[in-house]
Amino acid sequence: MALLEIQDVSLSFGxxxxxxDVSLSIxxxxxYAVIGPNGAGKTSLLNCISGFYKxxxxxxxxxxxxxxxxxxxxxSQLGVARTFQNVELFANMNVIDNMLLGRHHHYKSGFFxxxxxxxxxxxETVHRLKVEEVIDFLEMEQWRKHLVANxxxxxxxxxxxGRALAQEPKxxxxxxxxxxxxxxxxEDIARFILDIHQELxxxxxxxxxxxxxxxxxxxxxxxxxFGVKIAEGTPNEVQKNPEVQxxxxxxxxxxxxxxxxxx
Amino acid sequence: xxxxxLPHMFLAKVRKYGDxxxxxxxxxxxxxxxxxxxxxxxxxxxCLGLIELGLKPGxxxxxxxxxxxxxxxxxxxxxxxxxxxxxxxxxxxxxxxRYVIGHSESSFVVCDDQEQVDKVIEVKSDLPMLKNIIxxxxxxxxxxxxxxxxxxxxxxxxxxxIEEKDPERYYxxxxxxxxxxxxxxxxxxGTTGPPKGAMLSHANITNxxxxxxxxxxxxxxxxxxxxxxxxxVAERLMSVFFPINSGATVNFAESVETVTQDMRDVLPTFFxxxxxxxxxxxxxxxxxxKDASSLKQTAYRxxxxxxxxMAEARLARRPIPLSLTLKYGLAYxxxxxxxxxxxxxxxxxxxxxxAAPIAPEVLKYFHSLGVPVLxxxxxxxxxxxxxxxxxxxxxxxxxxxxxxxxxLKIADDGEILLKCGHIFEGYWKDxxxxxxxxxxxxxxxxxxxxxxxDGRLKITDRKKEIIITSGGKNIAPSEIENRLKxxxxxxxxxxxxxxxxxxxxxxxxxxxxxxKWAQERGIAYTTFKSLAQNPEVTExxxxxxxTANREFAQVETIKKFKLLDKELDHDDDELTATLKLRRKTxxxxxxxxxxxMYGGKG
Lengths: 263, 602
What we know:
Oligomer: heterodimer
CATH class of the domain at 6-177 in chain B: Alpha Beta
Strand order of the largest sheet of chain B: 7-6-5-3-4-8-9-19
Structural class of chain A: alpha/beta
Strand content of chain B: 15-25%
Radius of gyration of chain A: 19 Å
Shape of chain B: globular
Distance between the termini of chain A: 39 Å
Strand order of the largest sheet of chain A: 6-7-8-3-9-10
Order of helices and strands of chain A: EEEHEEHEHHHHEHEHEEHHH
Largest sheet of chain A: 6 strands, mixed
CATH topology of the domain at 6-177 in chain B: Rossmann fold
């Protein structure tokens, strides 16, 4: 059974069809990318998986269970973590606190026990340790106590990735993890994504604009165009697909796929 | 018990201190302690593991990574086996790493993580001697199929198995190590030409410690932070030689970027920094004070001069009036203590500046904060320190008197010559350079200097770097450059003028501080380049240059300068691994800018 099954999902906003009958099947342990031109419906698809949008029809199965009717927080509790295209962090909290929030649904004791019965300290130690492991993993030691608002954009994106990792997710959804980053930051994030995939064995679904990175690190790719899945396969297969070339018509396809004119 | 080699001295300390803390490493945000016994166990097992993998006495192993306890384990393990440990700068790009690993004919290279492993793999085909790549942190390497790659822990495991069968093996191997054997090789980052491998024997190290330890006393209660590159002889002294001699505790910074925070955690008592770091700390305080609340600013304005007056009185060895003592007490309570704490220098007993010349203004600033920084001078080729200012005997602008056992004389052309029991064994595979450097038992240091009436040494400059203007005047550029770098807005300065009518300078701005300055004035910029090209920034730097100029004779003043529109970088070959200027490359690269300053078309 696939970890994530998307079956004939359609979504429209008024007269605009954001997704039409999209089906995907992602196996546990895969590093999977969804690409497509602007407005192809990539983020809509991600939002359908994480529960922010409710599709008009179709099913989203996570570990065989239909999650369409669940709220985002319930889906998150099942083991789905995500990052956002535009960083969504608590700007006036420090890095550690932001990441501890990622641990929220791992807290076992409630408000009463924490406030009055001294359950918090031992539990907090466990969560703090997990957060420290992520800090070590993503090499963020120097920013632990910094307010997120004071950090450069590239680091904020890393913190957001860290918060998602602190959830110990089975499925990690990344919405344009490299958007707005310089070359060096892009390379760092690409390396971290590979490390997460290889070391932690996390299944990753990533939406990305930077073709170069997608072709380099993903195992399988599907291509969306105007809400329709037009191709799926290995990076090599996708690059050769004439449908895909047509979807990117008007852009210098050859060099785009090689990542040469990505900027 | 023998103490004539470094691993023997180490063994003696292990016997003495046992379960006491030897090393601390911040792991997952918590300082983890490593006892002398554990330290020793790692060294033993890694040593036996290496031998099992084919390490022979006299072989070389390269250690390529940032400061970590494993660096020390590998260092002492190699030495215990009679092999030679060679440090490679973690910032070295693949080509430079290849040079050091290849030139030293290393049979093993110990890397700290994937970054260094990738560099080694890139140049592996040029390294026929290499048997194994041993890796401290295997993160990201699970899918590497290269059979040469081995985890550090796996080598230790091999060693542990051997020890179980033959517990005395390590000690038998150690007995074979002789004081005259080479212990370590330090590649001196040449500002010209490829680096040379300076060979230091066990006798060099033990003789050095015998001479230096009595005048630079370190105790087993001292705390050290290890953060400068260990392949440099200065940090090796701080993290390995001195602590093994004294029993002090070495704390490893979590990463290069967290040193400031780690310093505040540890509050070291024995601290070494290079001029660049002292300059950065000073600039940091000055800039931060500008941003501070008015109360803090007032405290700084009132009490910093008190600290300065105290420092001046002490340096001049004048009697200190009671009123000053009282004022100083207040200044200490209300200002200096907090500044020192912020810098992580609150408990510093011995602070040393070395490895490059430093402006007396910077030293004086730290004296006025109550951190009497001692400037020392030495060479890799004589195991690190030859002269140093001693506590209570500091004279700014000099590098102090020779340590006991060091004989010093000035040659006719001003070059400083040294004779002592810790002059190195020569350069690896370079007898010509060795013969040029050691003549009749004297070490030719390549530095020019003079001795004052009290026998204190004053360094003028590197012999090769002395500028002779077309007017025939000899000028030491580093003195002027260091004065310029006292400005919080100037990161790097290169004085030019050899064979020219007047002096000019290329200046690299201190990005963070100038950026802040620009923001306060609403000056728009996007990158380093646009900031450096801003005319208002140029005007501001002109003021800084004029201020510096006032302290020099007319011929020594900077007549024109240009701001560099890129940051100098080791990767671009403009700086050495220790961030010293490569003047030749810079002169060539920025030749057109230089010509403009001399009226050329550029």
